[in-house]
Amino acid sequence: MLYDxxxxxxxxxxxxxxxxxxxxxxxxxxxxxxxxxxxxxxALFNYLFAKKNNGTMILRIEDTDQTRFVAGAxxxxxxxxxxxxxxxxxxxxKGGNYGPYxxxxxxxxxxxxxxxxxxxxxxxxxxxxxDKLDLIRKEFESQKIQFxxxxxxxxxxxxxxxxxxTEVDEFLSSEKHYVIxxxxxxxEVVRMSDLIRGNIEVNTNTLDDKVxxxxxxxxxxxxxxxxxxYLMEISHVIRGEEWxxxxxxxxxxxxxxxxxxxxxxxxxxxxxxxxxxxxKLSKRDGDKLGFPVFPTxxxxxxxxxxxxxxxxxxxxxxxxxxxALLGWNPGTEQEIFSLKELTKxxxxxxxxxxxxxxxxxxxxxxxxxxxxxxxxxxxxxxVEAELKKNGIITDIKFVEKICEMLKERANFxxxxxxxxxxxxxxxxxxxxxxxxxxWKPDSASILIELKEVLAATxxxxxxxxxxxxxQHFESKNIGLGQVMTPFRIVVVGxxxxxxxxxxxxxxxKNEIIKRIEIGVEKINF
Length: 525
Ligand code: GLU
What we know:
- This protein is mainly α.
- It is built from 22 helices and 13 strands.
- The strands form six sheets. A three-stranded antiparallel β-sheet has the order 3-4-7. A two-stranded parallel ribbon has the order 1-2. A two-stranded antiparallel ribbon has the order 5-6.
């Protein structure tokens, strides 16, 4: 006996060393809708942790709750994470040694585990129908008590703890509604440790007897999650703070199965808060607050569209960089990190406990930084593709120069397209407000004179143009403002934009003269 115990300890110890070296993490979303940016952050932190530790990153689809299943959600999750550059080593598509990776495909696995708990006294059958429980709940509420199926109430309910064996067998064979519930121990302190939150203690009397298995043959999240984490040899469970209340049950389930020696380490990530800091940023906030909460556009089965960062014009690198800093910090002032860099420096020790406020302006700032870091050629390719969509075909070298001129003020590629539209087409209309305020009775004649100056300028370069224009009009005592504002109106269509001389140089003599002629005629008419 003593001898057995000795070997058992050696095996457990050896397994622990082996497991410690073998990091296996999973991202385990339920396909109940699109992935919110908090979910993407959870996937990201798992990915970074796996890469940093030469570990394995797993995608497990937790779809045991058929009532909440949403068509297209699984595909959305896979595609949107791919866009972020978050790849999996084992998943529903690639497979792996621990598959299947979709819980509905593992359905036959779970019942035997529920049975183990029934047999070893850690779970029981409960026969109260949902309607009956609703009635009881209402009764409790009328006395201002909140009902839960727990150590106290289970003594007065219809379950295998209160019924005789014959009654239980009868119920089970009559195919009536039943569930298997966890038998929460009475008045015990559960001690847990979390890599982010430290040590936590909870008294079991505050916890309810959660349903583990339903008579439709499906496990609930809790049972399936624990069984799969065990079977898939998950070493670290990194997930959102909303799962912290489930931790005592999960720890107790490991104990009930006798799997304590391989229990994963837990890390519960802090919440992502709304920009005003009041409450959790939720899926329902999408678009309402003026920014997307989803990585890519989500089209509901009913055809409604919620916007995503990708379609909004964000670079995935900027989106991911922003997410990495929501709750984690590098311990330095550096803010710009590539995914690769992050996989080298990420640690759970630098994840904070308190909620991180989502800042939509900062998110734009990240995109701005990534846009500035792109070469003019890289940007021109992106701008050209956008222009093509609008039927505008143009020369890439020309677009490169426009990118160089406009990128500093742009957050998105679409800003360059919008701000640079006049480069590709003559203004269709002129800003009425600007004309009202800035178009003077002598503007047309000044522009005709300007046209002559420009026509006479041989080398059409911005500094030469500037010199010639200045010289000509200063000698006639005409202020430069009187010339440049109407000039800009006829060329650009409005009064704002980059340097007029540079614009003139880029558009060239013929185009500029054409725009002056058309503008003067249209505006003065
Ligand atoms: N299926 C759960 C979810 O949707 C997984 C929670 C966990 O990681 O344990 O988030």
